[in-house]
Amino acid sequence: MDVSTLHTVAEDLAEHLSEMTSGDFKQPTPVPGKDVGALYLHLIDQNVVLTAALANAPTPQRQQTDPSVRANLPAAANLYGGGFETRYRQTAHILEDAFATILVAEELHRIDGVDREASTIYDQQVSDTVIHTYDLARAMGIDYRPPADIAYRVLKSLQKSPLTDPDASWDCALRLSQRIPSFR
User: Fold this and answer.
1) Which CATH class is domain 4-176?
2) How far is Cα of residue 31 from the mean position of the Cα atoms in its chain?
3) Contacts 24+ apart (CB under 8 A), 108-112
4) How far is CA 37 from CA 1, 56, 180, 183, in A?
5) Where are the extended beta strands (E) located within 16-174?
6) Which residues of the chain carry a pLDDT beneath 50?
7) Nearest Cα to 4, choosing from 100, 85, 87?
């Protein structure tokens, strides 16, 4: 798969993460009850979990569920040799590589118990990355608006349902309504 759009939006997010300091962790994001620290862990988790799914590997434990990881976030800036963007970029590049190995866009991969086409997962990841860039920018008091073509792509991604199987659609609806645990 061509990963150029994902690479572009991931680099944009990484640039915003480079402005983040440990003092920003407790800043609220536009998502109720979520702060910048939770968003940062979610970004890393999302990349790692999707990479595993694309490789048909077991789902790794999510960092955001481990309170000790959250407590040690300030050390993360130095642990990986740079700012907070360094660890994010590492996981984003690995995810990009995983998408690049996919030869058939319709290839199915299981995420949170639902089989989805690789192209749909890719479009969702592009959309999520742009929206999370907005979340981070807002929390840090930075204006953010993606380029028009990216904004249109995000809108299209949000408007289409990737699921045709009624059972999968219902499972997804329950996850989105936060009735059952979800990847988000």
Assistant:
1) mainly alpha
2) 14
3) 109/53, 109/54, 109/56, 110/53, 111/49, 111/50, 111/53, 111/183, 112/175, 112/182, 112/183
4) 31, 29, 23, 17
5) 108-111, 114-117
6) 80-81, 182-184
7) 100
CA distance 118 to 96: 12
39 vs 31: CA distance, rounded Å: 9
| Whole-angstrom Cα Rg for the chain | 16
For the chain, the domains span 4-176
Q: How far is CA 55 from the centre of its chain?
A: 17
Q: Helix, strand, or coil here: 183?
A: coil
**Amino acid letter at 67?**
P
Give the rounded distance of the alpha carbon of 108 from its chain centre.
19
The pTM of this model reads 0.81
Residues 6+ apart with CB under 8 A from 126: 5, 6, 9, 150, 153, 154, 157
pLDDT digits (tens, 9 = 90+) for 17-39: 988 888 888 899 998 889 999 99
Q: How far is CA 110 from CA 69, 73, 147, 181, 184, in A?
A: 26, 30, 31, 15, 15
